[in-house]
């Protein structure tokens, strides 16, 4: 069973792609982390998953 699944999401701000064609799935009970430098789109990805912002 999947706890989360993301398929081909894209987000741009002012012609700058911050998330580009991201896909992944997380199984229930699995430990998963988003890591990357500042501006890599980690927070944007979580906000899209939570439906706080639209892709």
How would you describe this protein?
By secondary structure, the protein is mainly beta. The chain has one domain (2-49). 15% of the residues lie in helices and 44% in strands. A two-stranded antiparallel ribbon has the order 1-2. The termini are far apart. The model has no long low-confidence stretch (mean pLDDT 95).
What would the keywords be for this entry?
55 residues, mainly beta, two-stranded antiparallel sheet, 1 helix
Number of domains: 1
Order of adjacent strands in the largest pleated sheet: 1-2
SS field, number of helical segments = 1
Quaternary state of the chains: single chain
Overall morphology: globular
Radius of gyration (Å): 12 Å
Topology pattern, helix = H, strand = E: EEH
Q: How much helix, percentage-wise, in residues? A: 10-25%
Strand content: 35-45%
What distance separates the N and C termini? 24 Å
The main sheet comes to: 2 strands, antiparallel
Number of E-state strands: 2
């Amino acid at each position: 069973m999947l706890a989360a699944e993301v398929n081909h999401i894209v987000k741009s701000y002012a012609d700058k792609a911050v998330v580009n064609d991201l896909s992944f799935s997380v199984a229930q009970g699995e430990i998963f982390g988003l890591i990357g430098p500042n501006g890599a789109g980690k927070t944007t990805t979580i906000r899209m998953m939570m439906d706080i912002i639209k892709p």
